[in-house]
Amino acid sequence: MPAPEARIFENIKTEKPATRKLLELDIKFGDLTDKNVEQFRILNYLNLPVIYSEDFYRRLINNLRYSKLAYLKDVLVGAISCKEDDYEGERVVYIMTITILKPYRRYGIASKLLEQAVKDCAKGNIKKMNLHVQSSNQSALEFYKKHGFEIAAKLDDYYTDLQPADCYVLVKNLEQSTTSQ
Amino acid sequence: MSSSTALATANFKSKEKSLFTQMLNFYDNKQFKQSLRNADQILEKHPDHPETLAMKALNMNSLKRKIEAFEFIKKALFKNLSNFTCWHVYGILHRSNKNPDEARKAYLNALKYDKDNQNVLRDLGQLQIQLRDYEGYAETRRQILVSKPTVNINWMAYACHKCERALEVLESFDKTLKENKEKLKNHERTEITLFKAKLFEEMGDYQKAINLLQKKGLIVDQISKFRKLAENYQKLGNKDKALEHLEDLLELSSANTNNYYQILAVHGYSNKEFKYSSEDQLKIKEIIEVYENRFPRGNSHQRVLLKILTGELFREKLYQYSKPYLIKGVPPLIVDLKDVYQDKEKTQILEETLLSHLKSMEEKNTLFNDEQEQDPTVYLWLLYYTAQHYYYLRDYNQALKYINEAINHTPTVIDLYVVKAKIYKRAGDREYASKLYEEARKLDLADRYLNAVSSRYLIRADHVEEAEETMGQFSKEGQELNVHDMQCMWYENEVGLSYLRQGNYRLALKNFNYIEKHMEQVFEDQLDFHLYAMRKYTLNAYFQMLEMEDNIYKNKNAVRAAIGIIKTMKKVDKIREEEQKKFQPEFDSYKASTEYIKMCEELKKRDEDDEFKNDFDPKGYDLYQKALQDPIKVAYDFAVLVASCNPEVKEVQAKMIPIYLRKNKLLEALKAVIALTERHPTYEKTLSSRIRFSQHWNSLTEEQRKQAIPDEKLLKVASQEFEALGASDEQSLKNLSEELLNQNLDKIEHVHEYIKTRTVLFKENDTAKYEKVAIDALTNDLRRNFKVHNAANTLKRLTKIGASDVQYRQKAQEVFIHARHFD
Ligand SMILES: CC(C)(COP(=O)(O)OP(=O)(O)OC[C@H]1O[C@@H](n2cnc3c(N)ncnc32)[C@H](O)[C@@H]1OP(=O)(O)O)[C@@H](O)C(=O)NCCC(=O)NCCS
Fold first, then answer.
1. For ligand 1, atom 35: residue with the closest CA
2. For the purposes of burial, counting CB atoms within 10 Å of the CB of B131, is it exposed (0-12), middle (13-18) or buried (19 or more)?
3. What value of ipTM does the predicted structure carry?
4. What's the CA gap between B405 and B379, in Å, rounded?
5. Which CATH architecture has domain B2-180?
6. Which CATH number characterizes residue A65's domain?
7. Is residue A181 part of a domain?
8. Ligand 1 pocket, residue A167 CB under 6 Å
9. In this prediction, what percent of chain A has a pLDDT beyond 90?
10. Which one of A87, A94, A158, A159 is the catalytic residue?
11. Does A148 reside within a domain?
12. Which residue from B329, B411, B435 is facing A42, i.e. has the nearest CB?
C-alpha cells in the first residue's frame, strides 16, 4: 500500500448517516481477482479505519471463495471478503471486511453481499460466521445485529493503532438463523 | 519448376539431382542457409551450372547479403545470357532492391527465352500492377489466360482493368463457365456481380446496373445490394425507388447514420455543413422522426438530428437523446456529442442541460423535469460528463472540480482517472497525468487498452524505460518487446519524440526509422495480395486496397514520423560537427563492447528472416553514423515521400520547405508554398514559409535558378507562379508579417511565428516589443484556445533571443496554472 499522500484521492467528503433508501437496485456480483484487487483496495482504504498490509492482499488472493464484489450498472460499489478460520475448535467463516461506498449505503447492498456469503457457507458446510468490529462502529453493529449476529465477547485493547482500541466479537449461528432482515 | 527441374539437371548424377531438388525445397520452406549449402555442394561439381548459380544468388539475397547476391547473379548472367532462369532471378533481385523498372526489363528478357513460362509471367504481372502499368498488366494476364484458360483466377486477373474491356472479359468468362458447366460459389458470384454493377455505374449506365442488381440469386450481400440500388436510382432521379431501397437498407442496418443522410439527400437536403434554416429543420425533423418510431432501438436517427437541429429544437432532442444514457450509465455519451462543440450556441445548451440535471439530482435525486428517482450512479456519470464538457472547452479548473467530485463520489471507476489524466495532460502536467493513468491501469490489470495508453503517457513524461516495462506486460516475446515486428507505429513515434525531447538524436532517428521500414514493408506485402485477391474473387476490396496502397504515406503515423525525422535531422544539422566529434568515440566503444559482440554472435546463430528480430543495429549507431554525414538528405529521403502524398497536411508542407531549399529543390519548395497559401491561408506558418522562400529566390542569380530548374518552360512557369504570390521585396514582406500579427494578436502560436520571422528571417531584434506582444497574447486569448506547448515554445524563443522572459513566464504561470513548462 503506497503512503496515503501518494494516492490520487483528494478531499474525501464525509456524509451524514443516511436513512433507509427505498429505491430497489439491481446489484450484480463479481469475483475478486488478482487483476482487479486494486479496486478492492480502494474500497477498504476509503471505508475502513484499518490500513491493511500487502501481505493481507497477497493471502486474500489465495482465498477467494467467500469474497464477492458488488456492482451497480458495472460500477463497483462494495465488497465482502471472508476467510475460513477456526473458532473455539469449530470451522467458521470469518468476515474480514465488508464495505459499501458512502453514496450507495442504506440501499441494502451490504445485506445482499452478506446473504450471498451465508449461502456460500451453506455450500461449504459451514455452520458459523464470526468477525471483529470496533466498539465505536455503530452503523456496523446495527447492521450485524439486524442480520442476527450476537455479541460473544468484548476484547479490550484489540487494536494497536486505533482509538477506541477495544472491539466486539460477533457471532452468527447459521443453522437456526433466519437470514431475512 | 518440376518439369524444368528435369531439364535443368539432365546431365547431373543422381546425388547432385537429389541435392538440387532438396535445394529447391529448402528454398520454398525459407530455409535459406540449408539451401545455400546445397547450392555450394552442387557448384563444386558443376561450377557453371546456371540454375544452381541463380539459386545461390536467390538464397544470398534472402539472407540479406544483397550486394553479394547481385554481383553473383551478374556473373552468372554474363556467362549464360540466354538462360531464362538467370534473367528471372536477376529480375527478382532487382525487385527486392526496389528497382521495379529494371526488374520488369529482366522479366521481359527471361520471357524471350521461355515465352510461356508461367512463373515469370506471374511475377511480371504482379510487378506491372504494382507499378500500376495497367496496359502491360493486361497483356501479361492475357498471355497467361490464353495458355491456361481453365484456371478461374486467370479470368479474374485479366478482368482487372478499366470498364468496357473488363466487362467484355467478364462476359466471356461467364460463357466459358457455362460451357464447362461450372458454377461459382455464392460469394464469388456476389463479388463479380457487384463489380460488374460498379462498372456500369462508372460508365453512367445506371439502368443496366439496376437491372443487374435486381436479378434474382446473384447477390448474397443484401446490404451492398440495397445501397447500390438506392445510389443508382438516385442518380437516375427516381426518388421513390431510391427511398424504397434506403428503407430496405435501414431494416438491415439502422445503426448507420449515413443511411439517414442519404435519405435526406434524396429529399434534397444535402448541405455539406449541415446548416439549415429553422423551417428546413422542422421538415427534416419530420422526415427523420418517422424512422424513430420504426426503429426505436437504434439512436443514429437521433444523432443525425442532433447534428442538424439548433436552438430549442436541439435542446429538446438532446434531452430526449441523453436521458436513457444517463439512466443506463454509458460512458461514451459525451464523446458521441463531440460535434456539438463546433457550435457555440449548442455548446451552451449542452452545458445548461448538464448543470440542470446535476442540480436536480442533488436536490431530489431525479433528473431535471422528471419525477423518477435515480440511483447514485446517475449523479456520478453527470459529474463525469460535466468534467469532460469543461475539458473540451479547455476550462481545466472547472473540469478538475467536477472530476474530483466524481472521484470522491465513486473512486472505483476507472474512466474517471482516465479523464482526470487527460485533463492534466492537456493542461500541461505530463508527469502527474502519467501518474493518474498508471492509477487507472492498476485498477484493471487485464485491460490491454489501458496498458497501451498508460505506456503512452509514460513516454510523454519521458519515462521510456518504465513504458517499455509496462508495454511488455502484453507485448512480449521471450525476453524482447515485440513492438517492432508487430508494427506498433504509435509506440515507435512516441518513443522517437521522447528521445528527441531528451536530445538523444541517435535513438530518436532509430525509432522514426522503424516506421520508414514498416511503410516499405506494407508496400512490399501487397505483392502477395495481388493473386490472393483474384483467388477470392474479391475484386471490389482489391481495388480499394490498390487505392490504399497508392496512399500508404497518407498514414497518420507516417506523417508523424516524417515530421519527427525532419525535426531531429534539423537539430543534428545545426550541431553536426560537434556531434560528430562527440559521437565517434561512443560509436567505437559500442562496437568494441561485449554487449555488441555478443549480440552479433547471437544473431548470426539464429536463422530468422524477420528484419526486426535480425537487426544488427538495434541501437541505431550505424544509422546515426550515416545520418551524421548528411542529415538533410536523411530527412529529405523519407519526408519527401510523405510530403508528396499529403499536399493538404500543412505541418509537413511547412516543415519541408527549408529542406527543399537546402536540397536546391526550388520547384518543390514553391509548390509547397503555393499549397499552403491556397489551402491554409490562416495557418501561422504559411506567411513565414512564403517569406523564407521569397528571400531565398530573390537571393539567387538567374543562372542559379536555371541550375535548380533546368527545364526552361518550367522555370518560366515557376517565375510566374512566384510573382503571382504577390510582392516579394523585403519591405512588402515585412509589412505583411506586421499585418498578420495585428490580425492575430490574441493567438500565441501566431505571435511565436512572428517573433521567429522577425528575428531569424529579417534579422531584427526588437526584444521589448516581442515580449509585450507575447504577454498580450496570453492576456487576450479569452477563448482559452491556445495550447500550452505553443506558449512554451514562445518562452523558449524569448529566452533564445535574449529577451527578458520574467514577466512572460509569470503571466504564463498565471494562465496555465497546472502546466510545468514555466516552472
Ligand atoms: C456497514 C455497511 C457495510 C452497511 O452497508 P449498507 O449497504 O448501507 O447496509 P444495508 O443497506 O444493507 O443495511 C442493512 C441494515 O443495517 C442497518 N444499518 C446500516 N447502516 C446503518 C446506519 N448508518 N445506522 C443505523 N443502522 C444502519 C440498518 O438496520 C439497515 O437496515 P434498514 O436500512 O432497512 O434500516 C456500511 O455502512 C459501510 O461500508 N461502513 C463502513 C465500513 C465498515 O465499517 N464495515 C464494517 C466493518 S468490516
1. A20
2. middle
3. 0.90
4. 10
5. Alpha Horseshoe (1.25)
6. 3.40.630.30
7. no
8. no
9. 61
10. A94
11. yes
12. B411
